[in-house]
Amino acid sequence: MKWFSAFLLLAGLGLLHAQTLPAGPQVLTFYSAVDDSDQPYAVYVPKDYSRARAWPLVVSLHGAWSNHRVNLRRVFGQGNREGETDAEAMRYFPPLPAVPFIVASPLARGTMGYRGVAEDDVWAMLDDLKKRFHIDEDRIYLTGLSMGGGGTLEIGLKRPDVWAALVPLCPAPPFIGDEHAGNALNLPVFFHHGVDDKVVPVAVTRRWSKLMREAGVQVEAKEYPGVEHNVWDHAYRDAQLFQWLAKHKRQRFPERVVFASRDPLNSAAYWVRLLNFEPGVTARIDARFTGPNKVEVRAENLPGFSLDLMGHPRYDPKREFVMIVNGVERRFAPGQPIRVGEAGAPWPEVRRATSGRHVYVFGTADNPPPAEIAKRRDFAMQATDWIGGGRRLAYTPRVIADRDVRPSDREGHLIVFGNARTNRIVAELGGKPPVALRAGREADHGLIYAVPGAKPGTVIVVSEGLPWWQGSARNPRAGFGFLPPQQSILLSIDEFLLFRGGLNEVIAEGFLSRQRDKLRDDLVELP
Fold this sequence. Notes:
3 domains, 8-stranded mixed β-sheet, 26 strands, globular, 7-stranded mixed β-sheet, Rossmann fold
């Protein structure tokens, strides 16, 4: 039993949990619950890494048609050698400069634009890194180039309280609106852009840096005359990025928080949480301390909000708290939760479906012959074909029949094809669905809508008639084409979308409670 005693001794000393990875660049994987796959990311481990202290972390997002391996080289200023293609550069890691940072770059499925599944991968990688390494929560930085620069802006402005600084390089225009610029109020931002960039014009950086300055953000923007799209060869040269990052730490308890959001899935920053606001409408809050235990709030399009001030140096839970909301004073007893309004049930949104675990389901409820089953399966498979355009996406969604849906599948989102007659999942919605195509309209109309799923926060998305991506080439609906239309269109839909022939002829969309007057009785059935 001597070996067992030695085992207990090692465990007691914490040595069994020490990081055993070699120093330098390498590739690790994390498990993705989105599609039950292992997803890779490249990581640099400092030579003297030890769990005895917390380490700063740099998350770096690659550009379009690139990957995690090439990107890890670039962030250290070790780009492609002369005449070397990305395919050749990804086969090895050159010696990288020694820096006192952990550095990680996700594949994020390839060229997907850091939205939906790809954004989920960034957060999953961050969780995996925190399990493996002793990360300093106040020194986590986000940078990226081109597509990854746009991802840096979008992810950084959605969750500004996670990061200590943002460094976007030649950022592709993000999908979030101008009103989000002020979210970086407590977050330094450093843009880099080539003046002669023909892929992403320097006007993108000039515009966003101007918006941020007007909002009071600490922003820098460096332009490189004569440089085209490869500004990373200059901004990352000689690992100079790390010198700038080392100057900044996260503001965990800022005096003032400005936060805007159109997405209830991104509803909190620092000590502020937005409650029960309508998706697609920008909710905004500006909250600032004006004295000890006193906060002034300006709120727009916001039915409710709460403040979590525990740990803030200007808050004492043993004293009365005073809050002035849009000019009206409210008082809270010592220790009383600081909340205005209530948290409502999550809004059903189509866009929610591909931002987490989901399964595609074709119908067999009407007992169709084998040829028709194969046709329906193929139709559902088209929705998962995200490989077009050379994206080489690392994404493997499941496609199953309605009769094969298991209880574990209902813990995530379901994307369902058919109606109450052809698909068991639709029939199980109880009574009539909130909207349905009338019989005979399926051949020339398309309808897609969302209802709450079995587990809180999940949705069931129902697609009837023509597929939601029909006519997407004529109506791409937004931005750079990083995402395949099957997903990019899903991410643009609120509660429902009804169209004739294709997306170039949308009849109505948005939220059913506000759009019923636009729905013709000869096209759809309403309960």
